[in-house]
Each structure stands twice: as C-alpha cells, then as structure tokens.
Amino acid sequence: MPCTTLLVGKNASYDGSTIVARNEDAPSGEFTAKRYNIVKPSDQPRHYRCVISHLEIDLPEEPMRYSSVPNADLKEGIWGEAGVNEANVSMSETETLTTNERVLGADPLVRLQPACGALPEVPGGIGEEDMLTLVLPYIRSAREGVLRLGGLLERYGTYEMNGIAFQDVDEIWWLETVGGHHWIAKRVPDDAYVVVPNQLSIDSFDIDDAFGEQAEHLCSADLREWMAENHLDLTMRFEAEGDDVTPLGTFNPREAFGSASDSDHVYNTPRTWAIQRFLNPTTCVWDGPEAAMGPESDALPWDCVPERKVTVEDVKYALSLHYQGTPYDPYGHAGCPDQRGKYRAIGINRNCQLSVVQLRPGKPEAITAVQWIAFGSNPFNALVPFYPAVDEVPAYMSVTPDKPSTESFYWANRLIAAIADPHFAVCAPHIERYQLKVGGMGHAMLNATDKKVTQEGLDYKAAEPVLRQANEDMARKLQEETTDVLDKVLFASSMLMKNAFSRSDG
Fold first, then answer.
1. Residue 75, class by beta-carbon neighbours within 10 Å (0-12 exposed, 13-18 middle, 19+ buried)?
2. Cα–Cα distance, 41 to 60 (Å, whole number)
3. What does the pLDDT look like over 75-114, one tens digit per residue?
4. Cβ(319)–Cβ(23) under 8 Å?
5. Rounded-to-integer distance, Cα 425 and Cα 417, Å
6. Sign of CA dihedral 105, 107, 109, 113
7. Among residues 329, 254, 233, which one has the least CA distance to residue 298?
8. pLDDT tens digits, residue range 40-69?
C-alpha cells in the first residue's frame, strides 16, 4: 500500500523519545476506512488464516494485549498497521517497496496459486494484511520483532516487497524484505531521522556486522551466499594483495535490491526530498539550478541528523507536506501552472490514517507509550494523542460505520477534507486553528494525566481506568472541535458556490 514513513531516533527527538510514524495511504482510486482498536489476548487468534494468500499459521499461546489501526471493513483482512503492546514495543507495517528484475528472478515473490484442474491450491506468503497480528503480540523488544518477522519471512515468504519498523524505548529498527524470502534490517542511529517513501531505501549495509556482532545490522541467514550466487552485489572492488579483495565502496542495498526508475522520480524520491528539505533547511541547497539535492535525486541519504530536535508537531507537518514553498504545491501559486502537482504529495487525498507512536523514557510503564492518531487527508486533519495501555478506546475512534457519519472521527475528517479542498485558501485558516487547538488540548491532557499517574504511584494495572478516562475526555473534546471546524469549512465553502448571487431576495 502506498505510504510514507518517518522514524526519529531518541537523541534526535525533543524529549528523548523514540518516534515511529507512518501514513497509511489507500491505493489509487480507493479510500479505506479505518478505526482505532485494542486487541485483548482473548480476541487474538490462535490459528490464523490470511485472507489474501490463504496461508494458515498456528500462533503462540499467551499473546499480549496491543493496539492497532485496522480496516473498518475486514473483507480483505485485518490490516492492523500500527500498534503498541503491553511490553511497550511498537510495530508499524508496511511501507510498500520497489525492487528490480534481478531480485525477483533470484527469489520470486510467493503468491497464491489458485487450484487449476487436478492441481490443488498453493497458498502464498504473508503480507501487510497479516504482519502486525502475527508479530506484535509476541515481542518484547524492537530487535526481537525483527527476528520474529524475519523468521516468518524465511519460512513462509511474502507476496510483496515491504518495509517494517520496530520500536522500543531505546531502539528503532527498520526491516526491508528482499524478494520472496530474504530480508535486511538496520538500526536507526539515535541522533538521526529516516524517511522512507515507497522505495527500498537503505543505502549502506554492513554484512560483516549482520553475520557477526549484529550491533546495527541483521539479515536473513543465507543472504551472503544468495547474493553471491545471483551476482546481486554491485559494489566496485579491486584486488589489493594476493587473494585479498578490498571493496572500493560500501554495500548499497538500494542499488542492489531497489529501483531508481522514472516513476520513482515522480512518485517516491520527491517525498524524501521534501521532508529532508524541511528538517535540514540549511544543510545543503535544495532548490533551483544550483541544488545539491533535488526532488529527483537518487543520492538522498537514508538517515540524516536534523538541524534541531524533532517534535511530534514536526512529524505531523512533514507527513502532511504537499510541497509548500515550492512550485510543486497543488494549492500554491508559485512557478508555472504545469509544475503544480508534478510530484506525488505526502499529504494526499488518499491518506487513510497516520499513527505516530511515541515511547517516552523515564515514565512509569503505563504511560511510556502514546499513540497519536489522525484519520483522513493529513493537510486537513488533526493529530490526537491516546494512551494505548487500556482495555478499550473511545467509540469516536473505534466505531467507523459503513456510511459517512459525524459521530465517527474517520468520517468527520473525510468530510472536512472534501469540503475544504476546493476552497483551500479560505478554509486553511480554520483548519490551522483547529489543528493548533486540538494539539494543545492533547499535550495538556498528557501533562495532567502523566502527573496524576506519577504522583499517585499507579502501576500498570491501577493506571488503566485513569488512562481510559483521559482518552474518553480527549475524544469528547476532539469531537466538539471537529464538529466545529466542519461547520466552519462548510459555511465558508457554501458561500463560494458557483450559483451564489449577491442580490438578496429577503
């Protein structure tokens, strides 16, 4: 599924948190309704069947409770996407990635083979539909998440190329699938952020570390042999002395396993450029004929040290970008008209949900995790915090009916975006004030609830009703503000209807 991922290491964030964020975007021509959910151990299946691939897997006993952001309609499976478990470990899946012909030939994707005549059906591998359900309830560290998912990939394979993030309070790991059964994973540097569009992105990988200390790199068990057998390593090398072969450069998985196609230069790389341009505005020249890095550059780095500490609000803005301040902004007036909308925006009409998981150091276990949620098109919505260490979440977030309803946060945001988009200039101030007010209320809720849990010394279980009430209060205020901004953009847009006439008939 088309998405955009932003990962922020603990020393790069404003409060020492690890931050994992990802837009889930519906495919072109579709809109996927979402909801926010808590999966209790009693609700977790012990035997799982993939809807898309028909693969069946037995799951371990004693799963942990976890949050998720599943599809409202389960006809194509769960698609849990992003969540936090009781051990304060999070998972975000998946960023759909591109690859090349050499990889697909060396390790084909494992797709469902329907029954044909006397030949029985052959199930496919696992995919975005399944991964959160299969992994998150059973892991107690980010590294453990990589290893569990990696084992499943090696055993069952996958029918699509994907990137997956795992997070605990100390580490963030990023895993990329390579072909049907192979994978690599790299630890995000503590002082850096990482942007991933729909493109295999890791640009340097220490294979010796992956097969040695595994301090910063992990991979599938036979990666080295498989690469050699299929001539996948494109690193230039030269002979130094005797039989010793010295690399001229570091191994670049993006070059070996990924793509740099014409479509990537329109659909993928501009998104990385936009976020790096935002978080590192003076690091290099980003615009014009003298630009060191442009929107179509294949040399944009996987990780960057930001020029200042990154906040949750920065993350929301970055994942709502539509190329503001450039000729490519579809709502802008700079440059030539034919440049507007030239590149795929990050904040797009097909944004389904944005989940920003913040794991905060030094907090009691019950309040370590905060899951910020937004539904619908990001330029027009608000990001709201909730505590995931609860048994249930408010109905405004968890109930998404089949048809539009202002009683649902998802549908309310879809309506706001559709109404405001044609009249962006007049509606934008209302949206900005809405985002500011909701964000401020969110931080106030966190500050007050954190203080209560800490001062009263509440343990994980005792804190649950306090957190659940805080979530309910947040959802009630959120609904009030969302209804209010809907009213405002509806009025502003109604006044600009093409059949308006200034003469009063009253």
1. exposed
2. 11
3. 999 999 999 999 999 999 999 999 999 999 999 999 999 9
4. yes
5. 13
6. positive
7. 254
8. 999 999 999 999 999 999 999 999 999 999
39, 370 contact by CB (below 8 A): no
Tokens standing for residue 39: 């999966």
d(CA 372, CA 358): 8
Question: Which sequence positions are flagged as catalytic?
Answer: 3
User: Nearest Cα to 386, choosing from 399, 376, 375, 397?
Assistant: 397
CB 207 within 8 A of CB 217: yes
Render pLDDT for 204-248 as a digit per residue (tens, 0 to 9): 999 999 999 999 999 999 999 999 999 999 998 766 565 666 666
What is the value of pTM for the model shown? Answer: 0.96
Structure tokens at 8: 């922020």
Helices 424-455, 460-494: inter-axial angle, 10-degree rounding: 170
* Residue 162: both structure tokens together: 């994907």
Q: Are strands 56-58 and 47-49 parallel, antiparallel or unpaired?
A: antiparallel
Q: Are 97 and 177 in contact (CB under 8 A)?
A: yes
Q: Of 324, 304, 203, which is closest to residue 252 (Cα–Cα)? A: 203
Q: Is 53 helix (H, G, I), strand (E, B) or coil?
A: coil
Q: Give the pairing of strands 90-96 and 82-84.
A: antiparallel
Give me the torsion for CA of 137, 143, 149, 150, rounded to 10°: -160
Sheet with 172-178, edge to edge strand ranges = 82-84, 90-96, 162-167, 172-178, 182-187, 217-219
Q: Which residues pair with 113 in a beta bridge?
A: 122
Map residue 312 onto helix, strand or coil. Answer: helix
Residue type, 454: T
